[in-house]
Automatic annotation (TrEMBL):
SMART domains: Aldolase_II. Catalyzes the dehydration of methylthioribulose-1-phosphate (MTRu-1-P) into 2,3-diketo-5-methylthiopentyl-1-phosphate (DK-MTP-1-P). Zn(2+) binds at residues 93, 95. The gene is mtnB. Belongs to the aldolase class II family. MtnB subfamily. It catalyses: 5-(methylsulfanyl)-D-ribulose 1-phosphate = 5-methylsulfanyl-2,3-dioxopentyl phosphate + H2O. GO terms for molecular function: aldehyde-lyase activity; methylthioribulose 1-phosphate dehydratase activity; zinc ion binding. Pathway: Amino-acid biosynthesis; L-methionine biosynthesis via salvage pathway; L-methionine from S-methyl-5-thio-alpha-D-ribose 1-phosphate: step 2/6. It holds the Pfam family Aldolase_II. This is Methylthioribulose-1-phosphate dehydratase. It comes from Cedecea davisae DSM 4568. Keywords: Amino-acid biosynthesis, Lyase, Metal-binding, Methionine biosynthesis, Zinc.
Length: 203
């Protein structure tokens, strides 16, 4: 099951690479194997040409890779999502221009998205009239500290679809590769719309 999922993730990584959403070897992607293990892309690999060999098995509880190879510096954010959301089986972390810039333009702790038909591409959203809150966390090179802040936030607030790291990018997830990919494409479209709207409309 997870082997098939990993194959689908590799295809999705190539798509992400082609979109320019993980430039200069940035970003990282993973799939869950089971309650204990996930497979995460190795540090410094170009997402446009990843293969299954470029993924490392990582312990979800400890962030350790038994192979001794170096998992991504942002491993702790993937394992956090798997710990917080047992239904999440795929995590995508990208450095898109829209996620990077919009998370800086929006100064508050939440980007509120409303008024867009495309909100309905996000699982469970029924109407453009609803507000979709996307949490923004200040970036931190200390991933353990950052993961702790996100975990604390998630104890008191809903954390749906994904979160933004300010000036850094987007992390999103899904129950399978198709759902994670749809949330990523949907959110990225909404971020692009919101960027354009803020350029032209000042209210
Ligand atoms: Zn990153």
């Amino acid at each position: 099951m997870w082997q098939e999922r990993l194959g689908q993730l590799v295809t999705t990584c190539h798509w992400i690479g082609a979109k320019g959403w993980a430039p200069a070897t940035g970003g990282n992607m993973s799939v869950r194997q089971d309650a204990q293990w996930c497979w995460l892309s190795e540090s410094g690999r170009d997402k446009g040409s990843l293969t299954g060999e470029d993924f490392l098995q990582v312990d979800i509880a400890t962030n350790q890779a038994p192979s001794g190879r170096k998992p991504s510096a942002e491993t702790g954010l993937h394992t956090l999502v798997y710990r917080l959301f047992p239904e999440a089986n795929v995590v995508l972390h990208v450095h898109t221009v829209n996620a990077t810039v919009l998370s800086r333009i929006e100064k508050s702790a939440t980007l509120n998205i409303s008024g867009y038909e495309m909100q309905k591409t996000l699982t469970g959203q029924q109407s453009h009239l609803d507000t979709v809150p996307i949490a923004i966390f200040d970036n931190d090179q200390d991933i353990d500290a950052l993961a702790k802040r996100i975990e604390q936030y998630a104890q008191d607030n809903p954390l749906n679809y994904g979160f933004l790291l300010r000036g850094h990018g987007l992390t999103c997830w899904g129950k399978d590769v198709n759902e994670a990919r749809r949330q990523l494409e949907g959110l990225e479209f909404l971020f692009e719309c919101e960027m354009q709207r803020r350029l032209y409309q000042r209210d």
